[in-house]
Structure formats: C-alpha cells, structure tokens
C-alpha cells in the first residue's frame, strides 16, 4: 500500500504475515507519529498493559467495526440526540484526559499514550468528537485516528448519560457523505454495549484485506478542514 501520510519513515515495520493467532501481535517499537500511523494503516494499534514493558501492539483476531449504514439509534437514544450539540476537535485534550481518568474502570491511557496522541492531534491525524450540553459544557466524547476512510476509535467517555453514545452517532453523521459506504469505524473489540449501537465483528484477515481500500478513501470534510 502506498504511504498515506507525509512523515519520515518509521524505523519499525508491522508485517501481519508474522503475527500470531492471538490479539496481541507485537511488543516494543516506539510511539513516534510515523510509527503509530504505520501501525494503524497495517491493522495494529498500541495499548499498554499495566506493569508490562515494553509497549504492546494489538490486532484483534475478531475486530469490532461499525459501518455508517449499520449504526442503530434506539428510540431513547434518538431523544437524547436532541439534548446535545456536536463539535469537532474543540477539546481534544479534555476528551483524552476524561477517557484516561484513572478512576474509570479499566483505565489504560498512560502518560506516554496521551502525549503521543496529543502530538498526532497537533499534526492533524487524531480527532475528537464532542457532545456538549446546549450551554457548551463538555458532556461526552470519543477520540481516534483518521486515515482516509478509516476512523480508528480509541476511547469514549461520558459525564452525562448517553453523551458518549451521542458523540459516536455524531461521528457516524460526519462520515455519512458520498463515500459513506466505503468508510469504516474501527472500535477494536465488540462489546454488548457497542453491539446495541450497530457494531459488528470482522475476522482479522477480512479487516486487513479491506484496510488498504478503506484508507485510500478521501477524508471526511470535517477532518480535512478541522
């Protein structure tokens, strides 16, 4: 696949032909922007595990994905949509800090991960979608990496009930353009909560096969101009 980003080449390679048949596929490397983007474009992402060094890289055997056409908005969620307003890239630091709150169950966002993704945001690759109350208060959000038609969601949070779901549906709306059928939201793993919103599972080999085409789709306008 041709390069999809204008950065120096990474020192590290991510070759799926060498990956084991388990979710964790590699350890080590670094968190330079070109390394992280190279990993995403080849189906891997970094996620630390507490007290384990070095950094671990993951490519789930069964990937959780959401297509625009599969997004499901329940009657109750539809009512919640009217309670919030969606903004893009207005509060990236606040969103990643809320997602990384150490008081949250399963918190995993380390200082090194935070710094790496803030740097990617500054370079225009990482984005946040925020759900705000009508008086402008940040109520929930989601952040991730956008490469062409791929949005690799990293984490989401809410301070107000349903605000994270509204942010995710806000993301879906941003991707609902003339290329909607070619776009893909990667949520890493499916959960019952995400399944209720339309997330389905894709085998790793199918995900990796689709990825070059997905990454070649133009960025949605909201990210191309943010």
Automatic annotation (TrEMBL):
Name one cellular component (GO) term: cytoplasm
**Biological-process GO terms, alphabetical:** protein catabolic process
EC nos: 2.3.2.6
Ordered alphabetically, the record's keywords are: Acyltransferase, Cytoplasm, Transferase
Entry-linked Gene3D superfamilies: Leucyl/phenylalanyl-tRNA-protein transferase, C-terminal domain, Leucyl/phenylalanyl-tRNA-protein transferase, N-terminal domain
Matching NCBIfam families: aat (TIGR00667)
Q: Which HAMAP family match?
A: Leu_Phe_trans
Q: PANTHER family, per this entry?
A: LEUCYL/PHENYLALANYL-TRNA--PROTEIN TRANSFERASE (PTHR30098), LEUCYL_PHENYLALANYL-TRNA--PROTEIN TRANSFERASE (PTHR30098:SF2)
Quote the protein name from its UniProt record: Leucyl/phenylalanyl-tRNA--protein transferase
Origin organism of this chain? Solicola gregarius
Taxonomic path: Bacteria, Bacillati, Actinomycetota, Actinomycetes, Propionibacteriales
